[in-house]
Amino acid sequence: MSELSAASERRTPEGVVPYVEYYTGPCRTLTLDIDLGQISMLVSRNAAQRTNAPTVSIDGRNYPVYWGRVYFEIPATRAVHVAVSVGDSHQVASVLLPAGGDTALSYRAGATGASLVTSL
C-alpha cells in the first residue's frame, strides 16, 4: 500500500477534528478545554468581543471552535504548534507540543493575557 493510500485510509474517531495536513505517521489525540467562564470577565468589558468564538490553530491552520472541550487529531511522531485565540491579541496563547502520546491542555485567560496549561 502506498503512503498516500495509507493516509487516506486512516480513520479519525467520531467527534475528533482530523489533522488535514499531509502526514502518514501515527496520530494522537489532543483534548483542549476552552472555558467560557474564565474569558467572560474579559469580554464583558467589550460588547463586540462577546460574539467571538475561540479559534484554535494547529500547525498554522485555523479552526473556529465552540466553548468547552474540543478534540483534535495531531501527529504523534513530531512536534505540533497549537495556539488558541479569542478576540484581540491579548487573549492569545500558544505552545509547541513535543512528539508523544495523547495530550490534554486547558486554555486560561486573564486580565494580563492568556496561557495554555497541561491538564492533569
Write structural notes for this entry.
It contains 2 helices and 9 strands. It has 120 residues and is mainly beta. It has a 5-stranded mixed β-sheet with strand order 1-5-2-8-9. Strands 4-3-6-7 form a 4-stranded antiparallel β-sheet, with no helix packed on it. It is globular and about 40 Å long.
List its traits.
Immunoglobulin-like, 120 residues
Catalogue the unreliable spans.
1-8, 45-49
Instruction: Give the strand order, joined by hyphens, for the main sheet.
Output: 1-5-2-8-9
- Helicity, in percent? 10-25%
| The top level CATH class name | Mainly Beta
Mean pLDDT: 79
Structural classification: mainly beta
Which secondary structure elements does this structure contain, and how are they paired or packed?
Blueprint: H1 3-9, E1 16-17, E2 27-34, H2 36-43, E3 55-58, E4 61-64, E5 68-75, E6 80-85, E7 92-97, E8 103-110, E9 113-118
Parallel strand pairs: 1-5, 2-8
Antiparallel strand pairs: 2-5, 3-4, 3-6, 6-7, 8-9
Brief write-up:
The protein is mostly beta strands. It is built from two helices and nine strands, in the order H-E-E-H-E-E-E-E-E-E-E.
